[in-house]
């Protein structure tokens, strides 16, 4: 029974999102260096808590070039998995701008987990 509980908890998205982080707090904030090329570095985040649209969207994935500040706003859902987010990035950004050298994000479990 313990194995069943452990398997369930490991596969539960709600459990992973509610789990507190055991990482030590970050150090002194430092400014990031300015990228030298467009779309060399991007920032990503999810805007959640939006009203549900007819298509089922209730969140927006934002992807911003750190140099030019050009942005892509991609409709998605709050329950999108890491694989779903990766697929959106591939279809909507990498297809147009190439693979970025770095992607900056917050500590959302979809961005920090293993993909």
From TrEMBL:
SUPFAM superfamilies: Ribonuclease H-like. One of its GO terms (biological process) is DNA integration. Signal peptide: none annotated. Residues 34-115 form the Integrase catalytic domain. InterPro entries: Integrase_cat-core, RNaseH-like_sf, RNaseH_sf. GO terms for molecular function: nucleic acid binding. It comes from the Eukaryota. Gene3D superfamilies: Ribonuclease H-like superfamily/Ribonuclease H. Transmembrane segments: none annotated. This is Gag-pol. It comes from Cystoisospora suis. The lineage of its organism: Eukaryota, Sar, Alveolata, Apicomplexa, Conoidasida.
